[in-house]
Amino acid sequence: MAPTPTGNRRKRVHVVSDVHGNARDLARAGEGADALICLGDLVLFLDYADHSRGIFPELFGVENADHIVELRTARRFEEAREFGARLWAGIGTDRAAVIEKAVRKQYAEMFAVLPTPTYATYGNVDIPPLWPEYAAPGTTVLDGERVEIGGRTFGFVGGGLRTPMRTPYEIGDEEYAAKIEAVGEVDVLCTHIPPEVPELVYDTVARRFERGSRALLDAIRRTRPRYALFGHVHQPLVRRMRIGATECVNVGHFAVSGRPWALQW
Question: pLDDT-derived band of residue 2, with 50, 70 and 90 as boundaries?
Answer without folding.
Answer: very low
